[in-house]
């Protein structure tokens, strides 16, 4: 069994994040103050299908394969809405979604479904070598909850900042790698 090293990187900062809006698939990343270091030639790069993941991956590698399982949580009718708007117009639904990981009042994917999707992807991941995967804060939170065996309620207690990295290794089981 060959070892796997998988680094999940959160996409770059978007205007939606700066202004307190929920993500939309067409959100673009803002310019960087300094360029990112390109991935080494032996590192295989994956990315989520959304624009912000594509743009971030382009800063890191000349080529990145789309991995649908790395897609952001489907927020249904809430995509692109400001949190303040939801607090005013749908406070009970927002509170329910934040407190109950099985709820999806927006008509999209629940947190529990996201965690299940990400867990299935990790369980089937069998590519030896070094990997870099550009994805979203919610996907990285799902990986942490699943990998550490945390209750789903802990999902809302994790902050993932733009361009942050989560390093994992696999030799029979997934392990968190702290540097």
Describe what is shown at a glance:
It holds the Pfam family His_Phos_1. This protein has 179 residues and is of the alpha/beta class.
Provide a descriptive summary of the structure in words:
With 179 residues, this protein is an alpha/beta fold. The chain has one domain: Rossmann fold (3-Layer(aba) Sandwich), CATH 3.40.50. 32% of the residues lie in helices and 17% in strands. The chain contains 6 helices and 6 strands; from the N terminus they run βαβαβαααβαββ. The protein has helices at 15-19, 51-60, 83-89, 91-99, 111-124, 137-148; strands at residues 4-10, 44-47, 65-66, 129-135, 165-170, 174-177. A 6-stranded mixed sheet has the order 3-2-4-1-5-6. The chain is globular and about 50 Å long. The relative contact order is 0.24. The mean pLDDT is 95. It holds the Pfam family His_Phos_1.
Q: Quick check: average pLDDT?
A: 95
Number of helices: 6
Within CATH, the superfamily carries the name Phosphoglycerate mutase-like
The neighbouring-strand order within the major sheet is 3-2-4-1-5-6
Number of strands: 6
